[in-house]
C-alpha cells in the first residue's frame, strides 16, 4: 500500500449533521477538513425578532477552497429548534476586508471595513457567499470536485486590510403567535408597524416584508401566552480544502426575480429582494389556476460552466428556474415541505430546496448572455415578503490551471478577454503568439511536474 493512499478525513460527523455526499470522500488525495462553529448567542421571547450582524465570526483561516456551508438554529443545549418555534427567515455569510491597526492616527480616515461581494449582479444587496433560510437543514451546498470557492487569498485584501467574515441571522420567534405564517411573512399589522427602522413612513400599499420585522420588533402573540426567553445560536459547519492548483475556482452569482429593470439598463440597484404575491382572482380560482409566475431577465457578465445551482423561496413557493437566452433550462430548483413536528420536517414550512449538479461542462453560459429568472408561488392566498433568488456557481476555467504560472492560463478570463477584444488587431496577433509560446512552455513544465504530483487519483488500497 502506498503511503499517499492514506486519506485522513477530519470530518466531524455527528447524527445531527447531514452526512456529506459520497463525493466528498473522493478528494483526490487532498485533505478535506471540516469544522463546526457557533454564532454569538441571540435571545428570543415569544413573538420577538432578532436580525443581527455578527462581525469577525469564527471561520477557517488561510488560502482555502470552500466546499460546503451548512447551518441551523440550536438552543443552548445544542438541540435543533423547529421552525414553528423559531422561524429562520435567513442567514447570510459574507467576507469583508477589515482595517488592520484601526487605532493608529494615519488610518483614521479609511473605512473600517469593506464588504467583499460575490460576482453577482445586485450592486447593493445579495452580495453573500452563502445564504439560506428555513430550507437550510435539507439543502445541499456542496461544491462538486474539482471546483471550490476561493477564500483567504492574501493578494485580495487592499493594502492595510485583512479578510474577516460576517454572519447575519434573521430569526422570528413564533411561539404563541396569533398567526404564525403572518409573523414569518412580516405582515405589518401583526407587528403594529407604520414606520420603518429609520423612522420613515411606510407606503400605504406596503403590507408586509422586512421593513416590518427588523431587529427587536415584536409580532402579536395570544393573550396571556407565556414562554421563556430562549438563548439560541446559529450552528454552522464549514468544509474546505487548502487552496491548490488542483482546485478550479468558481464565481458566485445571485439573480433576483424582483430586479425588473430592462436588460440593457441593468445597474444592479433594482434588486428589491422581496415581493408580494396577490391572491388569485375568483375566475382563476374557478379554473384552478392559482399560480403566480414572476419572470425577469438578467445579464451574466462572464460566462462559463454552471456547476451548481439552487433557488431560495418562502412558504407558498412551488419552484424557481433559470434559463439561457435561447430558453434552454439551466437549473430548476423545487422546494420540499415538511409533514411533521420535529426540526427538519415542520409541517407547511419549506425544509429543503432541490439543487442542480450538472455534469461538468454540460451546462454553459456565455459572456453577457441574457438569462431568464422564473419564480412560481401558489396564489391560493396572499403572501408578503416572499423571495425568488437563483444562486449559481460558474467555473470560467475548464481545467485546473497549468501549474507553473509562467504567463496567462487558457482560456483567458472573461474580463481580460474583453480588454483583448478592444486592442488593435496587429497587437492582438503578437499577443496571441506570446500566449502560444507561453502555452508550450507551460505544457512542458506541466509534464515534468507530473512526476512529482502528490496524492493519487484513486484510492487503490
Ligand atoms: C401600536 O403603535 C401605536 C403607534 O406607534 C401605539 O400607540 C400603540 O400603543 C401600539 N399598539 C400596540 C398593541 O403595541
Ligand atoms: C412555473 O410555472 C409555469 C406556468 O405554470 C410552468 O410552465 C413552469 O414549469 C413552472 N416552473 C417551475 C420551476 O416550477
UniProtKB/TrEMBL annotation:
Residues 1-19 form the signal peptide. The keyword Signal applies. The keyword Ribosomal protein does not apply. InterPro entries: Stress_up-reg_Nod19. Keywords: Signal. This is Stress up-regulated Nod 19 protein. It comes from Oryza rufipogon. The lineage of its organism: Eukaryota, Viridiplantae, Streptophyta, Embryophyta, Tracheophyta.
Amino acid at each position: 500500500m502506498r503511503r499517499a493512499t492514506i486519506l485522513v478525513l477530519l470530518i466531524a460527523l455527528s447524527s445531527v449533521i447531514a452526512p456529506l455526499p459520497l463525493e466528498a470522500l473522493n478528494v483526490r488525495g487532498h485533505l478535506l477538513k471540516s469544522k463546526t462553529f457557533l454564532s454569538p448567542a441571540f435571545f428570543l421571547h415569544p413573538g420577538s425578532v432578532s436580525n443581527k450582524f455578527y462581525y469577525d465570526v469564527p471561520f477557517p483561516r488561510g488560502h482555502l477552497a470552500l466546499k460546503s456551508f451548512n447551518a441551523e438554529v440550536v438552543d443552548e443545549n445544542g438541540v435543533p429548534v423547529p421552525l414553528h418555534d423559531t422561524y429562520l427567515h435567513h442567514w447570510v455569510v459574507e467576507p469583508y476586508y477589515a482595517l488592520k491597526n484601526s487605532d493608529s492616527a494615519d488610518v483614521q480616515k479609511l473605512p473600517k471595513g469593506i464588504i467583499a461581494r460575490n460576482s453577482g449582479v445586485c450592486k447593493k444587496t445579495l452580495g453573500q457567499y452563502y445564504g439560506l433560510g428555513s430550507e437550510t437543514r435539507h439543502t445541499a451546498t456542496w461544491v462538486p470536485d474539482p471546483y471550490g470557492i476561493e477564500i483567504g487569498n492574501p493578494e485580495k485584501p487592499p493594502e492595510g486590510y485583512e479578510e474577516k467574515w460576517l454572519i447575519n441571522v434573521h430569526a422570528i420567534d413564533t411561539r404563541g403567535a396569533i398567526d404564525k405564517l403572518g409573523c414569518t411573512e412580516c405582515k405589518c399589522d401583526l407587528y403594529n408597524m407604520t414606520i420603518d427602522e429609520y423612522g420613515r413612513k411606510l407606503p400605504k400599499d406596503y403590507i408586509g416584508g422586512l421593513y416590518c420585522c427588523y431587529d427587536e420588533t415584536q409580532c402579536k402573540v395570544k393573550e396571556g401566552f407565556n414562554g421563556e426567553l430562549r438563548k439560541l445560536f446559529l450552528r454552522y459547519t464549514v468544509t474546505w480544502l487548502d487552496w491548490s492548483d488542483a482546485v478550479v475556482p468558481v464565481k458566485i452569482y445571485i439573480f433576483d426575480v424582483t430586479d425588473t429593470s430592462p436588460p440593457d439598463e441593468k445597474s444592479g440597484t433594482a434588486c428589491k429582494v422581496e415581493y408580494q404575491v396577490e391572491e388569485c382572482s375568483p375566475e382563476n380560482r374557478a379554473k384552478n389556476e392559482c399560480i403566480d409566475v414572476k419572470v425577469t431577465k438578467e445579464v451574466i457578465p462572464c460566462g462559463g460552466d454552471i456547476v451548481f445551482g439552487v433557488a431560495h423561496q418562502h412558504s407558498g413557493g412551488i419552484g424557481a428556474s433559470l434559463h439561457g437566452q435561447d430558453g434552454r433550462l439551466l437549473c430548476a430548483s423545487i422546494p420540499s415541505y415538511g409533514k411533521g413536528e420535529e426540526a427538519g420536517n415542520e409541517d407547511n414550512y419549506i425544509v429543503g430546496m432541490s439543487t442542480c449538479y450538472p455534469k461538468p461542462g454540460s451546462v454553459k453560459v456565455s459572456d453577457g448572455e441574457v438569462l431568464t429568472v422564473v419564480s412560481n408561488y401558489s396564489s391560493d392566498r396572499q403572501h408578503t415578503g416572499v423571495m425568488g433568488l437563483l444562486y449559481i456557481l460558474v467555473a470560467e476555467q475548464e481545467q485546473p490551471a497549468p501549474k507553473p504560472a509562467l504567463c496567462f492560463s487558457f482560456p483567458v478570463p472573461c474580463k481580460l478577454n474583453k480588454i483583448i477584444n478592444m486592442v488593435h488587431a496587429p497587437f492582438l496577433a503578437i499577443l496571441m503568439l506570446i500566449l502560444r509560446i507561453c502555452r508550450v512552455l507551460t505544457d512542458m513544465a506541466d509534464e515534468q511536474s507530473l512526476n512529482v504530483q502528490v496524492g493519487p487519483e484513486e484510492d487503490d488500497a
